[in-house]
Amino acid sequence: MLEVSNLQAYYGKSHVLHGVDLRVGQGEIVSLLGRNGVGRSTTAKAIMGLVDCTGRIVFKDKDLTRLKTYEIAQLGVGYVPESRDIFPTLTVEENLRLGLKGKAPGRWTYEDMYALFPRLRERQQTQAGVLSGGEQQMLTLARTMMGDPELVIIDEPTEGLAPLIVEMVANFLRALKERGISILLIEQKLTIALQISQRVYVMGHGHMVFEGTPEDLKRNKLIRQEWLEV
Fold first, then answer.
1. Is residue 84 part of a domain?
2. What is the C-alpha separation between 16 and 13, in angstroms, rounded?
3. Distance from first CA to last CA of the chain, Å, rounded?
4. Could you tell me where the beta strands, DSSP code E, fall in 34-188?
5. Under a CB-based contact definition with an 8 Å cutoff, are residues 85 and 130 in contact?
């Protein structure tokens, strides 16, 4: 579904990614772990064409490297940024409508989103700017799915959320997997990532330092101590 090879990325003269390699299979949840500042979010932005990069990024045999962000989205790649980026003066329903590729929903409908996130149904005529942080995260996830992506890149979806909302987000990710959606999850909460992922990568200093199953990572105390634990 997605294959990234020798990805190098820059912010001006600052070299952030140093030869990142990763892959995400069909219907697979893959977590990208690591401490803040190691390049995880930059990896997501590079895949989406939001930062200068070199290397090779292939989605379903299509090279994304030189495409614009909207072209990548139209091919079927969804992106949930850490900053959420809701439209604060628009209602919940209007935000969801902006996620559509065309005039009508694809595999995911408004009703699907309201079923997964009942709180959004209650707030559908409320301006998004007055929603709580958890509600805004739900809205961002739901808006992305209205675009009917086949692969979703999700950056820190549980950051700062209450435990009940964290579990709701985890259930949402499981629901995506059941529908065959591939997920690249950037997450700091190790427990959530290990519970729902088939494979995990650990990033340090702009490159991958570990790849394996959640069970492999649990057994590798040295990697956890050096690259994940505080």
1. no
2. 9
3. 33
4. 52-59, 62-63, 77-80, 151-155, 182-186
5. no
This prediction's pTM: 0.92
- Whether 38 is in a domain gets the answer yes
Q: What is the rounded distance in angstroms from the CA atom of residue 137 to the CA atom of residue 4?
A: 27
The dihedral through the CA atoms of 139, 144, 146, 152 has a sign that is negative
Flag whether 64 is in a domain.
yes
Q: CATH no. for residue 226?
A: 3.40.50.300
Residue 9 lies in a domain: yes
Q: CA-to-CA distance for 168 and 126, rounded, in angstroms? A: 21
Residue for token pair 């200093």? 205
| The total number of structural domains that make up the chain | 1
CA angle 14, 15, 21 (to 5 degrees): 155
Domain containing 189 equals 1-76+151-162+184-230
Q: What is the pLDDT of residues 36-57, one digit of tens each?
A: 999 999 999 999 999 989 999 9
Two structure tokens written together for 177: 């997997």
Give the contacts of 20 (CB within 8 A, at least 6 positions apart): 4, 6, 7, 8, 9, 39, 43, 55, 203, 206, 207, 208
